[in-house]
Amino acid sequence: MSVQVVTITSGKGGVGKTTTAANLGVSLALLGKRVVCIDTDIGLRNLDVVMGLENRIVYDLVDVVEGNCRLRQAMIKDKRLSELYLLPAAQTRDKTAVGPDDMVALCAQMKDDFDYILIDSPAGIEQGFRNALAPADRVLIVTTPEVSAVRDADRIIGLVEAAEKPSPKLIINRIRPEMVDRGDMLSTVDIIEILAIDLIGIVPDDEDIIVSTNRGVPVAFENNSSAGTAFRNIARRIEGEEVPFMALKDQAGFFKRLVKLVRQG
Amino acid sequence: MNRKNELTIRGTKNGLVINLPDVGELDDLLSQLKTRLHATASFFRGGRVALQVGTRDLSKEDLERIGGILDEEGVSLWSVFGKSELTQSAAREWGLETDPFEQEMPRKPDYTERQSVMDYSNQPGASAILIRRTLRSGQRVVHPGDVTLIGDVNPGAEIVAGGSIVVWGKLRGTAHAGASGDDGAVVCALSLYPTQLRIGNYITRSPEGSPTPVRMPEIASVQGEKIVAEPWSGA
Lengths: 265, 235
What we know:
Distance between the termini of chain A: 30 Å
Number of helices of chain A: 12
CATH class of chain A: Alpha Beta
Structural class of chain A: alpha/beta
Strand order of the largest sheet of chain A: 3-4-2-5-1-6-7-8
Shape of chain A: globular
Helix content of chain B: 10-25%
Strand order of the largest sheet of chain B: 5-7-9-11-14-15
Order of helices and strands of chain B: EEHHEHEHHEEEEEEEEEEE
CATH architecture of chain A: 3-Layer(aba) Sandwich
Largest interface: A-B, 10 and 10 residues
Strand content of chain A: 15-25%
Number of helices of chain B: 5
Number of domains of chain B: 2
Radius of gyration of chain A: 18 Å
CATH topology of chain A: Rossmann fold
CATH class of the largest domain in chain B: Mainly Beta
Oligomer: heterodimer
């Protein structure tokens, strides 16, 4: 099967793009796939930290684009999984150092060596986002159940559709079922009613994420983490498997309404 | 307001009308016209406009100049209404309509009366458009005529129309009907819960409190000096 380039974006900052990219990378690699994660947030790089590989960076994305090194020299193999690689962003440059064509060419260069190229997009709708979107075969939109994040996600979906990419899929991150039950938080149904795209994953708010980020060990490695399980399920869905959504507390009755909405949408 | 002495560009039931006042140097007025059209270029573009000139004499050359200016902004002249014989014959020579245009739109529309006087089949001026998709946040539709949209208008999306707006779906973004000054335009939606609503020169927003959009068709129009939304119960 040919390589799939999957761009993970959101519009809003801080909703979990980098966490998602790292954890999906780990999850897909755990399923036996060859994966590379590319950090396109030039100047504000984080993917290396979340994956625990920041001490191993010698060359970065900008070095590759400018021809200062060969592609293989810049790619860092993960500490734990031999088929997972990271191509880090540069920290001392900014997003104008790379263009959309560079990204497309880069992915073309890598296509024979990997099953998945995951691109961690920066927040925003400017150059960084455009760079991340250019080579995408599929797009995943990450949002949290907050009005501002959903507004930005809607904007981004509009831009993705305008770029004529296939319809993106949605990941709702940091959901708190108790708050949804109390009516204090947007429910999955509320969010999909506005965004009107297919849902590919729901990730519960989980303290383990903070711990794992600080340690540099993505939660997808942990069997006892609900967020980790959620990310591994998303990876399976990306692979085409039908995985039922985790039974979070607010799900009673939700599935019926969700199925109805998705059928209409 | 004495419209006759000002250069105005208005939206009316019969389309866009430019009023050229009786007083003032033609050169001066034309340069003002050019500036104003240019400032709102994208809005009027593609539309047709009628010229109202009162008692001013305009020669064929004058009309050609005006036509040229309008052309540059993507607007076409379809008729000239004036009292002067010279203007009338110059217009006829150029192939334009010259029917006397005396009826002015009432400033405060009486909604029930408009219903019975409806005949939009021969409406000159801008045409109506039909859009069949949802507008997402950040997307914008601008059109000099009426706009019908089958789909939703999400918060952060915008429709700006010279005429009326009909949203066959949820209107949760911003809608501005009668944007060129027509207070008689209306806004309809299956679920009317806009961030902000404007008709002509009036502006309003949805009532605070209810977070869930009202799920019944409503029509909003200017009544008295404000915008009023009423449930749609049939014509």
